[in-house]
Design brief:
This protein is of the alpha+beta class. It has 3 helices and 3 strands, in the order H-H-E-H-E-E. The protein has a 3-stranded antiparallel sheet with strand order 2-1-3, with no helix packed on it. Helix 1 packs antiparallel against helix 2. The longest helix has 16 residues. The radius of gyration is 18 Å and the shape is elongated. The N and C termini lie far apart (49 Å).
């Protein structure tokens, strides 16, 4: 696997004639940052509720247990072009 340092070097290399290579390196670095630690977790029992749309037991990642399923999040500026994030709904009081 290419190290983050080498990937950063590729992303910043202005000599290269192929801008897509630099863009791909930046995108890979963004994904690596996003996947470096979970944003939240779902308990294994709650995973069946994700599929049926009725909700799941989602907890902050700091409460992670042995068999929990990690969830990761990309910042809006790290999303690939053409992909829109879904903004969380506002709470109704």
């Amino acid at each position: 696997m290419i190290s983050n340092e080498r990937m950063q070097s590729i992303a910043e290399n202005e000599i290269d004639d192929v801008p897509e290579i630099r863009e791909m390196a930046r995108e890979i670095l963004d994904y690596r940052r996003a996947l470096s630690k979970p944003w939240a977790i779902i308990e294994p029992l709650g995973s069946k509720y994700v599929e049926d749309g009725k909700g799941a037991m989602v907890w902050a990642a700091r409460y992670s247990g042995r068999h929990d399923i990690p969830l990761y999040r990309l910042d809006d500026d790290a999303l690939p072009a053409g992909v829109k994030s879904s903004k969380p709904a506002k709470k109704v009081r």
